[in-house]
Amino acid sequence: MPRGRSRAKRSESSSASDDEDDRNASPEQLASSPSLKYVPGSTGKQARARAKLLRDAPRRRREEADGRRSARRRSPSLSGSVDGDAQSEVSAQSSKKERDELARLRALLERAALSERDAERVRVELRRERTDDDRVDKLDAETFVSRVRANEASLRDAVRVTSSESTVWPTGRRGERRGGATNASEVEKRPVEAFDALPQEVWARVFGMLSFRDSVRLAATCKSLWVLSQREHVRDALCESMFGKPRASSEIKDSELVSSFLSSERWFGDLRTGEVSTPKPVHFGVGPSFVRGLIADETTVTSFDREKVKIWYHGAGIRGDDDAGGRLATLMVEKRSTATRGLTALAVNQSSIVCGDDGGRLRIWDSDTLEYMQKRAHAIPDDRAISALCGIPATSLVVCASAMHPSLEIWDTDEAASVTSVSLRDLISDERAHGVTCMGMFGGNSYGRLRSHVAATSRMWVGSTFQKVVGVDLNRAAFVDTLSLPESYENAEINALSVNGPLITAVVKDIGAVMWDRRGMPQEQIVAIFESPFATFEGVSEQSSCVDLEDFALFMSNPGDAGVALFDVRKTFGPPRKTERWLSTACTHPPVSILRPRRRTRGFSEEVSVGCFARVPGAPGAVIVAPDSANSEARCSIFSHKNELLTNEEIDSMTAAEMEDSWRSRRARKGKPPVPKTRGRHPKRPGLYHQ
């Protein structure tokens, strides 16, 4: 046999015998050797046993400490009957249970941080520092979360977390009630007639305070309440809560009542009169890092910055299987040495994606192949910057304008050629340079199957720098109507425009959103004013004001606002698609909801300011909100009727490993993000731009 092989065989047999002796030797025998120094008469096995003992000493000390802590929590009889190995096993199980409990506490506090209603009801009991008494400090969940984020407290300081009714953490006592109340299954429950518990007048007031959906659910509990819910005065109370007038005076049908509630429930919910809700986004921290403007359809978002256009999923689509923030394509534009602001406007028509730049040129891409069609389509004379674009639905036309040139240029994107021009010089009364700042039309500047081309008209409305909103007939290529701002709005700026049938809304700087209704007389009179709840931003921003109008709600934001203000327009105009108008004088309305974008910080989230937004009409009715340029690292937030808050079952199934990345310390997160950024490849979306 070769000498090397025999030497290896002897070493293997020697190590195997050493391991067997280590297993047979007791800890007392191994601990009798004081050091690793050579002792005359000792063997190699004893030296290796001493080395192994010293190497495993830290682990043994930790196990003994865990065993002592668990023994103190157990009864004396149990601690006296368990030997050393059993104590180690029990301590390991208790430490794992403690980690799981902390993971569930993290998930519970994250859920409370995302819901203001839960944050108010959840109370955290903390140990008092440097005291020997058993008293505790009670804090609400939001305050405790802020202390954890500021490293002023830790999760182990929480002794108990309770809601308004029961203990929700530790989870081992989740079903217990405070004050020693018994379990609900032990209490005898007997059916009670509704009118025996409360008088009929009280139930009628309860129905008047509930939403339409909750009133239907309450009426289904017994026949007496169902009969009461069909009474005329109960129906009038429900109608008045939504439309501001009783049903008898406005002649609203039950079908109109139901359709109006279902269309607005995802944004208003159980909102009471005078309340302002702040719903949380379904997704946040998705999409590009900086957005100057965007347009959204049922599945995707098309956004642009200074040098490129990006197409990505918003995650609230009708299919429900698209990843929020998943990128589809990036459309690049060649750089110019003289460019100061780059791309300035975006529009989409039936066949093309169009961008305007600061040199008066149109950048055109084919919507099917995403091929760069035209690089030098000079649309605005004298190289004026393009300030507004609007795609005409069901056509290949796009209308472009500049704030420094008083004309509208209509282009055919398939031919990359100008069709005609509409001059507004006859409406200008002074010699200063005027132009168009924004434009909009019913069904225009959008794409997707939910925005019907049948309801679109040929009339376009444009906001000008000479304080007028001008109606332009595209068939005749001439302006046909004008809406003037009041004289009290001196030197007011029209920054955004939205059209929904006969309603025209314009965002006026320092005023808010003003609305005209073309169904009434006089048509030039402002019928409603929606003031912004935020202070005016005085600085210059690359992003622009945004406004969007639905049948029941109005969305408005300015760069630097704390959120997108949502207004209820039903109390002014009644049910949608009505021929008559309820109010004939201008009235001011407060917002009913504010959509605040958020960003992630140490497992929690905090609010940031708004830069711009885009709305997806119909179902699912999502709103994509981009942060301002100062908080571009926050990325976009997606608001929808979907709810991503964790349920109790999901909290119970979560482990410490699943929450590790979200709750790492600030020092551990420094250098690179906890989750590496991945960009998957998505298939091309057929037929999303046109059918």
TrEMBL record:
Lineage, broadest ranks: Eukaryota, Viridiplantae, Chlorophyta, Mamiellophyceae, Mamiellales
Organism listed in the record: Ostreococcus tauri
UniProt-recorded name of the protein: Serine/threonine-protein kinase, active site
Basic and acidic residues bias spans: 53-69
GO molecular function: kinase activity
Biased composition (Basic residues): 665-691
Coiled-coil features, chain-numbered ranges: none
Keywords: Kinase, Transferase
Superkingdom field: Eukaryota
Spans annotated as Disordered: 1-99, 166-188, 657-691
InterPro entries linked to this entry: F-box-like_dom_sf (IPR036047), WD40/YVTN_repeat-like_dom_sf (IPR015943), WD40_repeat_dom_sf (IPR036322)
